[in-house]
Amino acid sequence: MNTTTIASLAEIRFEPTIRPIMDELMGLRRNLPCPKGHEDAHATFAATPFDITGAAARAVGFAEEVKRFLALAETSEPAEIAFGLSQLLALSALNAAATVAVALLPPRTTADISARARMGRDVLLAARDEDDARFVNAAKRAFAFDHADQPDRGEPLRLEPASVPDIDNVRHDEPAVAGLEQELSLIAWLRGQLVLGGLVEDAGNLIDRADGIARHIEAYEVDAAELDQLERSRQGLLLLATADLARVVLFAGLVGDGRDLRRSALSVADELPSARLLAVIVFAALAGERLEELARSRCGASANAAAA
Predict the structure, then answer these.
(1) Which phi and psi angles does 29 have, rounded to 5°?
(2) What backbone torsions phi and psi does residue 149 show, to the nearest 5 degrees?
């Protein structure tokens, strides 16, 4: 995170080099042994010790940059705010993707279980402060909070934000935090990541393959080792399908009128055999509606600034 003291958005010194940015949901595919993924590859993917603690830290890092933008906006001219709204939208979208990934991924370690619980608590408490009952209920289901595990029990827990890495340490295939100084990179990501239509079809195919494995298990006698491999493959397929659909419903509103695309993704998501995976999609869709509202406000503010 940048700690240089500046007084307004106009004083930000932008990094001239465009660095690669990958959102957390797209980044999941880096854990897949081969791009298209044979069933064995999906079994390996399902057993991956996902970096949930890192994803949570990156979500908080993006959230801190959003807060930084809003704080600087208080002392900035309206035109500066309007022209910076693309940064705000990109940071908010990357934060949302990381948050959804934390809700989706199965924790393997005590640290990851703790990070996931802390992230869920932060999301729930923020939604309660905004008095958004729909979002609260969706977040509860997505993060698997039960009635006995309320987010306001105990002392507040804090996740430390990941920092913006030096550009020499950025890899094109790994998620990393970007900040306000990376305006050019954020806008390039926002413009370049919005090819989403193919993901819906891909997700449907993954769900069909998972369903085929389930039917195979029911129809044939398989030994314990084969059953374990088949179940892992099925879980890996469903996890990737959910990540793809979550990405679509999250970002659909950033491609103009994305309502049809979101509806298509939600229709495919209804085929998921897991209530918790579907809950993650619903949570992502509501987060996507918030991003869509921000995108509309950005367009309006930019038009007003250009006319002034």
Answers:
(1) -70, -15
(2) -115, 65
Computed on alpha carbons and rounded to an integer, the radius of gyration of the chain in Å comes to 20
| Interatomic CA distance for residues 23 and 89, integer angstroms | 13
SS3 of 287, please? Answer: helix
41-90 confidence digits (pLDDT tens): 899 999 888 999 999 999 999 999 999 999 999 999 999 999 999 999 99
Please check whether residue 305 is in contact with residue 83, taking contact to mean a CB–CB distance below 8 angstroms.
Answer: yes
CA 54 – CA 126 distance, rounded (Å): 21
At 4 the pLDDT is: 62
How far from 21 is each of 149, 172, 243, CA to CA, in Å?
35, 7, 17
Mean pLDDT in residue range 238-243: 96
Closest Cα partner for 249 from 290, 297, 209, 208? Answer: 290
Angle between helices 275-307 and 78-104 (to 10 degrees): 170
Q: Could you tell me if 43 and 227 are in contact, meaning their C-beta atoms sit under 8 angstroms apart?
A: no
293/105 Cα distance (integer angstroms): 27
**Residues contacting 292, CB < 8 A, separation 6+:** 252, 253, 254, 258
Which of the 8 DSSP states describes residue 157?
-
Token pair recorded at residue 98 = 């990381």
pTM for the whole structure: 0.91
